[in-house]
Amino acid sequence: MADECGIDPKTVERWISLGRVPHRRHRWSAARRLGAEEAYLWPEVVASTNGRRGEASRAELIEVYPDRASVPRELWLRLLSEAQERIDVLVYSGTFFAQTQPRVARMLADRLSVGVQVRLCFGDPASDAVSVRDREEQLGGTLGAKIRAALTYYRELAGVDGCEIRLHPTTLYNSLFWYDDEVLVNPHAYGEAASANPTFHFRRLDGGGLFEHYPPLDPSLW
User: What's the whole-model pTM score?
Assistant: First the structure.
């Protein structure tokens, strides 16, 4: 467990022998490794935040990355490979998503085979929203082509039960990546490439509100 959390074994011993409550990042690592809910392992944490929505919401924030490129590749791989219920992706092109995970279609197919719902939503290359975004980032009319290229990565998933691949014509203020009770939020700042903008990693916590601020994909988008 110490190796899993990246801490000294004596720290873990104190959790057990002295009833110490771990730091929230270590609680989540331990809960994930044990396949248990954090509230089951440390019910006092939930009790201490009950009725204090602000504190619970802040506790939902796992990490802030200065830019999307700083999100470790291992995190992307872990989130995708460990999802048990759903994977939702909302982007314009999301080219990096496949480049970070070269076997992304096969990995998604593996998740689909065990009953995970997969929904991928890309920008409609013919939409006004994509044209506006292209001008804002000074991409010279290439964003539509990037979207079409990105879609080729998922060709083998078309028609697979449990998988939906759609296009949307909406203005995106964030690229969003949901994996069960975790979400990566990549805001879009005006004129900046998504890769250069911060990324926030949230995990759902009872009593919190930040995770719920970014609800799963709404079919009305497409």
Answer: 0.76
